[in-house]
Amino acid sequence: MTENIYRNMGISDALYNYASEVLAELEPRFAEIDKMAEINQMKVLAAMQKNQVSEACMLGTSGYGYSDIGRDTLERVYADVFHTEDALVRPQITCGTHALALALMSNLRPGDELLSPVGKPYDTLEEVIGIRDSKGSLKEYGISYRQVDLLADGTFDYDNIAKAINEKTKLVTIQRSKGYQTRPSFGVKEIGKLIKFVKDIKPDVICMVDNCYGEFVEALEPSDVGADMVVGSLIKNPGGGLAPIGGYIAGKQECVDNAAFRLTSPGLGKEVGASLGVLKDFYQGFFLAPTVVANAEKGAIFAASLYEKLGYLVIPTGTEERHDIIQAITLGSPEAVIAFCQGIQKSSPVDSHVFAEPWAMPGYDSDVIMAAGAFVSGSSIELSADAPIKPPYAVYFQGGLTWPHAKYGIMMSMQSLLNAGILAVDETNGKIVRKQ
Ligand SMILES: *Cc1c(COP(=O)(O)O)cnc(C)c1O
Fold it and tell me: How far is the CA of 212 from the centre of ligand 1 (A)?
């Protein structure tokens, strides 16, 4: 029966059969992911119960937002889930970059130095730091930056990290997810080792982790292994697909206070900032996030396995341990990445009739194609894919609010490669083969 449904939704029998074979092998892996979702679901639920989340918490405030019980309780829930002293969780934090910029700008002072011991940070942070000149950057405020690249095998260069730490070093920023690079993402335990190494050299340095795309993938978060601050976006993992905007900073009291005084105003801090109408979605999204992340991870593993078996380079592989929800697939040609993204777009619940095309985007040095048919604009916990149109022609994709949708979207990406003649069905045995 499902075969018929898929056929009516544009999936060929050969692809349906191939996908079914691949899926049969993934069952033990999926069971592990369900176990992780269970652990993290209990963690979130316990924090909600402990803080007595109530019906009144869903209502929200307007104006100054004094005594916003829903906002204040939600911040206690986040702090308990991340095991931190406090948290700032606000719709006034507009995106992940803003949350990271806020954490940095509020905790660094002129004359301080920022260190990234894990190589180049996420693209949008280049302008925050001033690696690329930009108005309002840390550099403009007299905050210097140092970077230690990863070793060729993707591990930390401890010798040079030790050399880079000096009397000015105030804050160390560690990006957990590879983002849109081909380096590996870091596990929470590895991050813990790096933090310990840094603190052994300089105990008072602030260790911040860019936690984007990593939340709830593991049982521990970086704040469980020594991070002073974890920072992320609510239109990624912790928003569970429901948060329509927002970012969070969870960490040491002083770090969170600094961020709050910078976000609103010295003297006002966390006391103001009306939650308007978003609280119910923030709570419900955070409650759903562990299972939504699991769905996205299943999609990523399914895609890795499906493409890997046809000989494509995938990072991470279908069997490797995962540390985030991003999947990279090197498809090797512009036609292939375009076809892939168009397949994802076509599978979307929103804008499925829209045709994704490569375009020049600010901040990128090549055209980029993006597929996103999301309920929340730009939300990348929803099934979405991006690819810069340049060698090695890799597509980065992530998300999927439900596993059946992630599965269908990935099958549609491959169907699109079949329809474009980049893949074909071998008539003798019905198997899918690469033409390029
Ligand atoms: C998405 C992301 C950011 C920036 O978040 P935006 O919400 O796009 O501004 C920063 N770091 C990493 C690793 C990310 O994945």
Answer: 6
